Amino acid sequence: MERYDIAIVGAGILGLAHALAAARLGLRVIVIDRDAQANGASVRNFGFVTVTGQQRGECWRRAMRSRNVWADVAPRAGIRVQHQGLVVVARRPEAATVLQAFLETEMGEGCKLVTPKHARELFPVLQPEACTAVLWSPHDLRVESREAIPQLATYLERHLGVMLLRNTHVHAVAPPIVFTSAGEIRARRVVACPNDDFLSLFPERIAAYRLTKCKLHMLRCVLPGAPRLPGSIMTDLSLARYLGYAELPEAVALRQRLLREQPEHLEHGIHLIAVQSADGSLVVGDSHHYGATPDPFAPDHVDALMLDEFSAVFGRRPLVTERWTGIYASAADRLMLVDVPSPDVRLVIVTSGTGASTAFAIAEEVIADLVGEDPADRPLAA
């Protein structure tokens, strides 16, 4: 029987991030996943590694660290960074005030506020009338998630010696044994990354956190004749949702105005993110609907609200070529959780939709806690 230093349950971005952190320490790693290929939240999103706007403090720090790991591992794994940087379009004076306040915090380092006149020259894809002010951040980057996650898994297998076992259900964990549908696997330590599967492993422990699930609408669109995006795009609605902005005192006035002018957008948890793919198409979203088991349906009027916000910024409505929904674990009182079922087991769930943005840093911390060595002390190229 093969013996491993650590078994990772789940091959989404969080599981793969743990595999990377462990493999870089020279550990023998196996990743076990119930699906034949990446199929969950990690490939149903923007592939947007968001630093700017993450909650001040630990989340922002983790996002910056994860962004740096992405920048290092992407070329090694053959992952194309589609574009870098973030443009936040302030459509209202209250939003411009929030952006100015953001710049005065440590999170605003390296960012700059651009006047509407200058924005028209720098970002010709934007509708000039929509811009009261524009924030430019160089920190954020974007990968094509449906390609990047499989490429990262292949890199871990071929170059770092990680074993990937797919189509395999893990039904119990008791190190040094992991009990699976493919038989017993020996591993000294285990990290479980179940995303929105709250019942297969440690259901009683997960239940104590009162998690729910979040469904989001996603669109792929084309905007014929438009110049390429200068980076990812956000608007006022994002300032009311992303905690790095929303928790600033100046955001109160913006939210009050949004409640008057766009109440339906807020009701459906809509804020605009637009990112671009290599073929020029745009991934546009998203909305947020919560429940123990969100329904699988995607009402058109929710997509229409997202496209209304897009049109206000870009000046015209795009052609929708693809629609899908994503789902992830969510919690009202935390962005992530790390639970300790036993000394050699960690249960790790990102509960805020920030997996792509924070997973690498979270994984480094968890692996350090498990094995007593901090991967962050090693160079990225290790």
Return Rg in Å: 21 Å
* Average predicted local confidence, pLDDT: 94
**What fraction, in percent, of the residue positions are helical?**
25-40%
Give the helices and strands as they follow along the chain. EHEEHEHEHEHEEEEHEEHHHHEEEHEEEH
User: What oligomeric state do the depicted chains represent?
Assistant: single chain
Number of strands: 18
- The low-confidence runs, each spanning 5 or more residues with pLDDT under 50, are 376-382
Distance between the termini: 29 Å
Count of helical stretches:
12
What amount of the residues lies in strands? 25-35%
Structural class: alpha+beta
The largest pleated sheet is described as:
10 strands, mixed
Shape: elongated
Overview of the structural elements:
There is one protein chain. The chain is an alpha+beta fold. The protein is 33% helix and 29% strand. It is built from 12 helices and 18 strands. The chain has helices at 13-23, 58-77, 93-103, 116-122, 145-160, 203-207, 236-239, 243-246, 251-261, 263-267, 300-314, 355-371; strands at 3-9, 29-32, 48-49, 81-90, 112-114, 133-143, 163-165, 170-174, 177-180, 183-192, 212-222, 232-234, 273-276, 282-285, 289-291, 319-330, 336-342, 345-350. The strands form 2 sheets. Strands 3, 4, 5, 6, 11, 12, 13, 14, 15 and 16 form a 10-stranded mixed beta sheet that branches. A hairpin with a 2-residue loop joins strand 17 (336-342) and strand 18. Helix 2 (58-77) packs across helix 12 (355-371) and helix 3 packs antiparallel against helix 9 (251-261). The model is unreliable at 376-382 (pLDDT under 50).
